[in-house]
Each structure stands twice: as structure tokens, then as C-alpha cells.
Amino acid sequence: MSGADVSVVQLEAYRNAPEAWTPPQLAVIVPSYNERDNVALLYEKVATALKDLPFEFIVVDDNSPDGTAEVVKQMAREHQNVRCIHRIGRRGLSSAVVEGISASAAPYFAVIDADLQHDEAILPQMLEKAIAGDHIVVGTRYSSGGQVGEGLSKTREAGSKLATRLSGLLTGKALSDPMSGFFLMPRSVFDEVAPALSSEGFKILLDIIVSAGRARARQGKDLRIGEVPYTFRPRHAGESKMSPLVVVQFLGLIVSKLTGGLLPTSFLLFGLVGGFGVIVHMGVLWLAHERANLDFVWAQTLAVVVAMTFNYIVNNELTYANKKLKGFRFWTGLLTFYAVCSIGALANVSVASWIYAFDGQFYVAGLLGVLMSVVFNYSVTRVFTWR
Predict the structure, then answer these.
(1) pLDDT band at 94; cut points 50, 70, 90
(2) Degrees (nearest 5) of the Cα angle 248, 69, 62?
(3) What homologous superfamily is domain 20-241 in, according to CATH?
């Protein structure tokens, strides 16, 4: 029998096989980046914890260079409830979680990290509380019975507790661990707030709590949040994703939510970078004009170019980390950044020169020239540079 004949026979066998599929009751969403040594073990542990409960295991991988997606795709050939969403050109934990949830039709979903620090054994308890009526069930490290264990350093634990207090001011609820990345909820509640969620940053639970709380308050309803304690474990393999970038993006999310989403997190970060860019701009202007005795127009022009370069590099690392330009695209991105911002820069130099000629105060002229181009630069570079 030829290889083609074998394929036909196998295809007919699949077509004639009895229906064995059971709709999942729970979708377990696993955002991942460089977690190839963790995902298979996590699946085994989740399967053990959930026993006979029908579930699907959805790994949303941001094109990990370590081949995480390939590992998950091989798992999917062995387990019919494993799925891989392989994202190319898109990055970010919050957007990965939203995409994973949206890809499932299960009535309940849980979000769990791939690094095995969350205790999958409490998933059945979390699901029971959601079925009983809780809108969001959080795996907590800080309530009675919960422990940080060896999963956090003293510095990270202190930072987590500070972030918890800041989150309490925003949510208005006494939650023990709103910074947890381990939670479970009904799909119906998520669907109510999905359009209002930010695709930026790493703290999706806080975003969901704030958005769902406000949405239900407008309907005169309460948001019921349950908690299940667990012990936070050390990372099994790989490196932690915690960095200063995560902290800055978290603070940006806090401010964005305080403004009711009027100021997007990316704009706040762009503005923060711009603030440091002002310092760079004024420093270069002072050195060039006051120390090097350059004509003000040339000194202002030099300061604009240096500040633009500074802003591009830092925004590429911070504001648009999920769209970070690398290699050849870094340089083409820099050129488009220059080109797009040149309109604002020309206006900057022209207005600043006019004010300087009128007032004679170089720092006032330079500052006003910078401020007028900030909003323009944000709006246009978002479209043309970091598409």
C-alpha cells in the first residue's frame, strides 16, 4: 500500500470515528514568552488538578525565540485540548490574555502564568466559587492561608504590597492581592468589559477589576470578588519577566484608569519620556548656546535633533515595548521618526526663535518650542513609526 493510500485510509478512519469531543467547561489561558521548559509540565499539573473536568489549555505565545510555540504545537498533536496561538509581530501580556480569552467559547476561563509559580491545585476551588456566583475569583498570596513562600525576593514582595495599596485606592475594594496574575471568571462578565480593556502593560487583572466594577456600578449592580489562598512558588525554569518597564507601565495604567481612560497608558508613557526629553533638550541647548557660544538657532536645532533621538530610543524600549523595532527596522524607524517629527521640529525652532527674539530668555523660548510639538509627535509617530 502506498503512502497516499495510507493517508486516505487514515482520513476515512477519522471521518468514521465516533464523536469523542466534549465541550470544555473551563479554558486555561497561559500567556508565554520563552517558557519552552515549563509549558508541558504545567499542562500535566493542570490536567491532574482538574481531573475529569473538560478543559482546554490555550498557550498564547509571543513568538518566543526559544521555540515555545513549537513545543506547544507538538503538545497539541498529542492532546486534543491543547491549542497554541502563535503571535507574530505582537507582544504584551495584557493583549495576549485578551486574545486567548477571546479565542475560547468555554463558559469559564482561568489565567495562569507559565512559570509554575501559581498553584494550579486550587483551580477547582476557584471554579466552584465562580459557579456559586463570584464574578472574579483571585488566587491570592496575601490573605489568610496564602503565602509568598520563596517565589518573591524581599524587594519584590515590598513592591508588590505597595502596588496593592495603590490598587486599593483605584478599585475602592479591600482586595488582598489585586496584582495577582492568577484569576478565574465567567466569560459573560469578561464580555461586558472587553472593549474597555487596555492592550498595554502586564497587570490585566487590575484593569478587569476596575473596568468591570465601573460597568456594573452604572447598572446599579455590585461586583463580587472571591479569593482562594495559595503559596507562591519559585519559578521552575527560565528568567523572570519583572523589570523596571513593568513598574512604569503599571503606574501608567493607574493614572490612565484614574482619568477614566481619557489618557491612554501609551500617551502617559510618551509624555513621561517627553519630560525627560525636555531635560535633555534644555541641557544641550544650554551647553551649545551658553558654553559653546553657538548662534541660538543652530543651538536650538542641535538640541531638537538630540532630544528627538533620545525620545525615539527610550520610547522604542518603554512606550512601544510590545512593538519594539530591532535590527534594520530600528534604523528605518528612526528615519521615519525624524521625518514625521520634522514638521513639529520646524515649528518648534521657528516659534522658539521668535519668542527668543522677543523675550531674550533662551530657556523660556526653548521650553515653549518643545511643548507645542509633544501631542503632534505622539499622534503621528504612533501611526507611521510604530504601526
Answers:
(1) confident
(2) 25
(3) Spore Coat Polysaccharide Biosynthesis Protein SpsA; Chain A (3.90.550.10)
